[in-house]
Design brief:
Layout: E1 27-35, H1 59-83, E2 88-91, H2 95-98, H3 100-108, E3 112-115, H4 129-147, E4 153-154, H5 165-171, E5 176-177, E6 187-189, E7 196-198, H6 207-212, H7 217-234, E8 240-246, H8 257-268, E9 273-275, H9 278-287
Parallel strand pairs: 1-2, 1-8, 1-9, 2-3, 3-4, 4-5, 5-7
Antiparallel strand pairs: 6-7
Helix pairs in contact: 1-8, 7-8
């Protein structure tokens, strides 16, 4: 087994050769709606209760998240359509089978899917190697059945990655992993076999974390702008990746959608910005790998 600290090499950003994005873009921006399913009365999951209130079912917690799949996701679709954004969905793979209208709408839009596990109430902590491999392959099978292709990316459900997740994801043929939050550029991950790239996914520009911290939509939108401004300025020297992670049950609410729209429109108003999918970013990076400068 490769220990966690041996997965990636330390690399000081000023010592890297500059990363250049297509067309001289300073920032590669990828937008990831987290479209998830939470079980109404989930099974007991080893180390963490998925709902804050007991006894189950927690109808408040469940109902809010169900709102996202009934209403909020369609607001996000309308916004992303209007702005003509390429989208990578952090997807509970069961959604493709459980919500055919939503699955059809996403596939028609040619949205990219990266697996966020089967359900967001099925954590991977504590799984054996065989159990985790089986869970990953179940997600692969669902994706292939609906798209005819293998999964391009992986983000463990509820960020519940294990020490073996990188190895098992790479062995399944998945190109990128979003379980590390350690850089503004893609990073090679050392695995037992195959090739795996860490793609920057944000726990800061993430409405779920902001919501839990009591940050409302205007402040979150301001945070998006502030992050972009710094990365855009720094991108003159080194191309950066900016991830914007949102959830239909949060930013898809009627009192929040306009704040998100304003932030995305602000970014769209700049040149030298590459809106891309996760797979497009990783493919470009692999064709132009970074090296340490002399």
């Amino acid at each position: 087994m490769i220990a966690g600290q041996d997965r990636i090499d330390y690399s000081a950003l000023p010592q890297r050769t500059p990363l250049r994005w297509p067309g001289g873009a300073r920032v590669a921006v990828w937008v990831t709606p987290n479209i998830e399913h939470y079980e109404y009365q989930p099974e007991h999951i080893r180390v963490r209760d998925p709902w804050p209130r007991l006894p189950h079912p927690d109808i408040l917690g469940y109902g809010l998240r169900d709102y996202g799949n009934r209403v909020g996701v369609w607001r996000l679709m309308e916004l992303f359509d209007r702005l003509e954004l390429p989208i990578t969905v952090s997807l509970s793979m069961a959604v493709l089978d459980m919500y055919p209208d939503m699955a059809r709408a996403m596939i028609e839009r040619k949205w990219e899917f990266m697996s966020h596990g089967l359900y967001n109430t099925r954590y991977h902590w504590g799984l054996s190697e065989a159990q985790e491999r089986e869970a990953i392959e179940e997600c692969q099978a669902i994706h292939r059945r609906h798209t005819g292709r293998g999964l391009p990316g992986w983000f463990s459900p509820a960020a519940s990655n294990t020490l073996l997740t990188p190895d098992l994801v790479a062995e399944s043929g998945i190109a990128y992993l979003c379980d590390l939050y350690h850089d503004d550029q893609p990073t090679p991950i050392r695995v037992r076999s195959g090739t795996l790239t860490s793609l920057p996914y944000s726990m800061e520009i993430n409405d779920s974390i902001a919501w839990r911290r009591g940050m409302e939509a205007p402040a979150f939108a301001r945070k998006i702008r502030d992050e972009f401004d710094v990365l855009y300025a720094e991108g003159v020297e080194h191309g950066r990746v900016m991830n914007i992670a949102v959830h239909p049950f949060i930013m898809g609410q009627p009192h929040r959608i306009d704040a998100l729209a304003g932030a995305l429109e602000y970014i769209r108003g700049h040149d030298r910005v590459w809106f891309a999918t996760g797979a497009q970013i990783v493919q470009w990076y692999r064709q132009h790998p970074l090296k340490e400068s002399a």
